[in-house]
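Hi everyone,

Forwarding the result from last night's run.
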Amino acid sequence: MSKKLLLLFITTFSFLTSTFSQFDVKEKITNLSEDINDGKISLIVSGGEVPYEYFWSNSSTPLTSHFAEKLTEGVEYSVTITDANGLKTEKKYIVETESFQEDINNTFIPVVSFLDKIIFWDPFYSLGLYDNIIRDSSEEILKNANGTNKTTKIPIVVVWLVLGAIFFTIRMKFINIRGFKHAISLVKGDYDDPNDKGEVSHFQALTTALSATVGLGNIAGVAIAIAVGGPGATFWMIIAGLLGMSSKFVECTLGVKYRKVDENGEVSGGPMYYLRDGLAKYNAGGLGKVLAVLFAILCIGGSFGGGNMFQANQAYEILGAQFPMMADNGPLFGVVLAILVGAVIIGGIKSIANVTDKIVPFMAVLYVGAALVVIFANFGQIGTVFALIFDGAFNSDAALGGVIGVLIQGFRRAAFSNEAGVGSASIAHAAAKTSEPVSEGIVSLLEPLIDTVVICTMTALVIIITGHHVDTGGLGGVQLTSSAFGSVISWFPYLLVVAIFLFAFSTMVSWSYYGLKSWEYLFGKSKFSEYSYKIIFLIFIVIGSSVSLGAVLDFSDMMILAMAFPNILGLLFLSKEVRSDLDSYFARLKSGEIKKYK
């Protein structure tokens, strides 16, 4: 009997102890404003044995934190709470959406997640060719704030762009190097025949395409690449820029070759046309039509997002930071910017080119000049900087993802910045006055050189030479670049405002042309079609200046990157005829058949 009582006592005591040691979790869920990504979840835990460990599903929240912030509204987050005795409980929470922009952002999140799995899929990891976990020099696994392993990724879109660039470089016999001198002569107008068909000069086509690529990516994107990949990313960024020159040559040659000129002399060209008409010559007309439509849809989406809303949004943010009186006046800023952009794009490619051929040289000289001031102010550090770049490229710290991680950061930034292989630039170059498609292709190879090898490299050198790659001070993107310049040029933040506004403005006017030509390809060419697109484009400028951008912008950026898939596939089909045209062009140039006019 006593044994039964003892057993009953032990069982009852264990039950009561277990019951009283269970967690009692009270939560406070806060949506701080109508802006996106400012949700907060705070927990008050009682019961169990302190201290508690909090494993949040978002990797940026530390294991010791009882609250998580900067959360996306409408997304489910989980937290597993563990006490000192190993007792666990899991809770799930959602910060409810409370504004239109939060609802829109929440709608796009699953779409972005789906596209991310496609565009940023890592084929090498999926095939078991490498371990994507990042380790330090002692082979210890590096952890995120929430305790999960840090990993690196080799996105399929970057692989596609880089392999395409390498193939075209070899296929075209290193046209990126041997065509440079002739490209300068063409831009100077030495071979301009006044009777050639087209709407703009070689120089204007170059500046129009450059204005779409030289932008915030050169300022913010490079800073992120250096912060994440270290100085070594600069080397691989330059290599990718040089290789990208060959991709740009092929797509812009084809852009002119397959362009259409109407009875009024107005030109329509780009990937839509060489994918449709070019592939038809190789018994792949059905595939060509599908790729052309896909490209046009992606280009329109990219023109409204990365080529429009993002530019307006970032220009307003920087302007508001420097001039407090502009705060909370996003819609007004958007209206003014839309009027300025509208005044330019209403006149078509000729009007756009007349603006970009002045803005692009000015802003490039302005930015590069400021960079040179900073570099020469630290002249004694130049040798050290280049040593850091080369050492980081081949002997990189494992904490940065090793050599592969640094290489990917450099290649990724170059690919995103100069858009070589994406195909967009061929739409602008198709409007050039020339009867020789190859000549315009040779002109276009200067774009990645200027955009990536010169301007992006200048940004990287400034960040490294001022030591901002070591201590970012919690800054990122534009702010990091501004701080690096400001350490030598106190008034640079104001100069940066001017540069960013010009970058954003010129990018928008060029992308409006890309989007319009894609729109007309799908919906036909008419005044109604033209003005419908332009009005929608201007409305998106106001929206971009007025609301926070999250998943909507991610979606648009992915559309721009996705343009590379149909475009490069078409370029591979057509590379043989481009090589033949290139050989013929240089043979005629050597024989004197192609005349100089200056």
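The CA atoms of residues 300 and 519 lie 7 Å apart.

Cheers,
N.
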